[in-house]
Structure formats: structure tokens, C-alpha cells
Amino acid sequence: MVVLSQPAFDHVSLIEAYKPTTLFNGIPVVDLSDPSAKTLIVKACEEFGFFKVVNHGVPLEFLNTLEAQALKFFNMSQSQKDMAGPPDPFGYGNKRIGPNGDVGWIEYLLLNTNPEIISHKSIFILQENRENFRCAVNNYIKAVKNMTLQVLELMADGLGIEQRSVFSKMLKDERSDCCFRVNYYPPCPELQALNGENLIGFGEHTDPQIISVLRSNDTSGLQICLKDGTWVSVAPDQNSFFINVGDSLQVLTNGRFRSVKHRVLAGPKKSRLSMIYFGGPALSEKIAPIPSLLAEGQKSLYKEFTWCEYKMSAYKSRLADNRLSLFEKD
Ligand SMILES: C=C1C[C@]23C[C@@]1(O)CC[C@H]2[C@@]12CC[C@H](O)[C@@](C)(C(=O)O1)[C@H]2[C@@H]3C(=O)O
Ligand SMILES: O=C(O)CCC(=O)C(=O)O
Ligand SMILES: [Fe+2]
């Protein structure tokens, strides 16, 4: 074992000796132009709460432009970036995730997707480049949101729900509570000396919203937890999107879809850059199973709550907590 003394390695709390994970080649791939997409989506949400989307229709130019703009941001000096933080929860964050003491080997920008709030102070510190950045974020979010609405409609269709817009209308609502996150995991060269140990970039958690749509650069690091509790690595694919079922969708489907536990490990050589669109409903939206998904006599597994109540409770929790357990019926 190599023992590194302080200050050579002062991020000890982020080091974890996880069991080695294998690259999983069973991640479902859904081609949005394929007529069987709706069936595949439902199967993937039941089995994994996670799938990859190809033929998504989002111009690759939007992905690459935003990546370049985000790198410009993260390559600025630390003092400049600090002017855009600390997150409240929006803005620039460095190592601290959320308000309750969680940390990771990460820098990020968290933005509200409401177009007026995209003019958050974090964008203003970009000075002469802010219009380019704002435009790249807006183009990306608009296109990704459209694709997400399509996926949600296929989901409803695949579940046999008469009202195809049952999920998508929650995001279409002008009061919907969606946010956007750009995560940057810098390389950590000292990691090479720590044989077999892992550096936590973003600790294990489920996403509280309905759906999360992730795109990353070509650097690995994302892992998901399978039904049997095994953690597996997801091969990066910079031209595709990865969809996560969030806690709220698990409730809307009365547990038929599962919100996927996931985490990110940082690497020694390459930086990872990911962009995640989190689709949440209006604060007043009631989160309860869609009635037609309940078989006769079947009851909801969850107590009634609104997205506002769930979100407030989530923000009091630690990242790895099972946030839904507070809302499960006894
Ligand atoms: C530790 C926390 C960070 C988080 C809010 C929370 O209290 C628990 C949920 C976390 C999470 C996970 C998914 C998204 O990245 C996020 C923005 C969200 O909505 O819930 C984060 C929150 C955050 O980073 O503020
Ligand atoms: O950065 C990633 O790849 C995933 C991060 C994540 O899960 C999140 O921001 O909620
Ligand atoms: Fe997440």
C-alpha cells in the first residue's frame, strides 16, 4: 500500500475502496426513430431506471458548442469562478454538493432553466463571453427539453396510458421546476499512486425529479447500481444522451419504474464534463400514482405529497439518503 502524507493528498475523505466494477454492456439503447422505442423505454425503466438514447434529433453542434463554452468557464482562474458562487442553490460550486455537508471531486454550475433566471450572476462573470455562453445554454436546453418531452410521451404510450401527455405536460407547464447542471471533474494525478482506490466525484444518490437527461464528454466515470445491488460502469458516449428515472417518476408509476442509484468517480488523467437537464414539475403538482396504472383494488405505495414538499425534504437530506422512504406508506 502506498501511504501519501498530507499535504501531498489532502482529499482523504473522498477516497473509497469500492469493489472493482465492470463496464456494463447491457445498458438498453433506444433509437427514438424506431417504432419499438416505446416498448423498449418501458422495459428499460422497469429493469434499470436508466437507458441510452440515440437518434435523438438534438443537433450535435449544440452539444459541442456548450461543451466548449463550459470548458472556457471552468478554465478561468479560481478567484474569477468563486465570484459566481457559492451556490444558493444556483451558481458555481466547488467540492461542496448541496447544503448538508456532502463533498466530491467536482466543480459545477447549477442553473435554473427559467430563461429569465439563466441570467444568474455566474454567467455575468464571463464578461465579454457571456452572450455566447447564455446562447449555448439556451439552445441546448430548448432542444434537450423537446427531446425529453418526446421520451416522456413515448413512456406514457408504452405504459398504455390514454393521455400521452400525462408526464410531458408536467414539464411543459410554464411553472415547471427544471434545472440544469454542468459538472466538471478535474483529473487528479495523485490518484495513480493509490492502487485500486477510487476518488468520489459525485457520491451515490437518486435524482428527486421526474427525469434527468445526461450528456458527457468522452470520459468514463458514471456508474449505476443494478437491481441486485451491483455497481457497473457506463461507457461514455458523447453523441448520445443517458436518461435517469427520478424519484418522482417512480411514484407516478407506483414503483413500476425505479429511480436509479448512480455515482461518478473521478479519474487520474482526463477531465470529465457532463451536462444534466433535470425535469421537475410545478411546485404545486401533486405527485401520486397515475390512476390508470393502479390495477383494481391496488393502492398507492406512497403518502400524498406535492413536488414542493418533496423538494423541501430532499434539500434537508444527505446525497446518499433514501429520500422516498419518508413518503412510503407503512
Ligand atoms: C445533497 C444534496 C444535493 C442535492 C440536494 C441534496 O440535499 C439532495 C439531492 C441532491 C440533488 C441530486 C440531483 C441533482 O444534482 C440536484 C441538483 C437535485 O435536484 O438533487 C442535487 C442537489 C444539489 O446539488 O443542490
Ligand atoms: O456528472 C455526472 O455524470 C452525473 C452527476 C449527477 O448524477 C447529478 O448531477 O445529479
Ligand atoms: Fe444524479
UniProtKB/TrEMBL annotation:
| Known EC number | 1.14.11.13
Highest rank taxon of the organism: Eukaryota
Keyword list (alphabetical) reads: Dioxygenase, Iron, Metal-binding, Oxidoreductase
Q: Which reactions are catalysed by this chain?
A: gibberellin A1 + 2-oxoglutarate + O2 = gibberellin A8 + succinate + CO2
Note the InterPro entries from the entry. Answer: DIOX_N (IPR026992), IPNS-like_FE2OG_OXY (IPR044861), IPNS-like_sf (IPR027443), Iron_ascorbate_oxido_reductase (IPR050231), Oxoglu/Fe-dep_dioxygenase_dom (IPR005123)
Q: Where is the Fe2OG dioxygenase domain?
A: 175-281
Cofactor needs: Fe cation
- By its UniProt entry, which Pfam families does this protein fall under? 2OG-FeII_Oxy, DIOX_N
GO molecular function terms here? gibberellin 2-beta-dioxygenase activity; metal ion binding
Which class of enzymes does this protein belong to?
oxidoreductase
Pathway connected to this protein: Hormone biosynthesis; Plant hormone biosynthesis; gibberellin biosynthesis
The Swiss-Prot or TrEMBL record describes its family as follows: Belongs to the iron/ascorbate-dependent oxidoreductase family. GA2OX subfamily.
Please give the function described in this protein's UniProt entry: Catalyzes the 2-beta-hydroxylation of several biologically active gibberellins, leading to the homeostatic regulation of their endogenous level. Catabolism of gibberellins (GAs) plays a central role in plant development. Converts GA9/GA20 to GA51/GA29 and GA4/GA1 to GA34/GA8.
Question: Under which name does UniProt file this protein?
Answer: gibberellin 2beta-dioxygenase
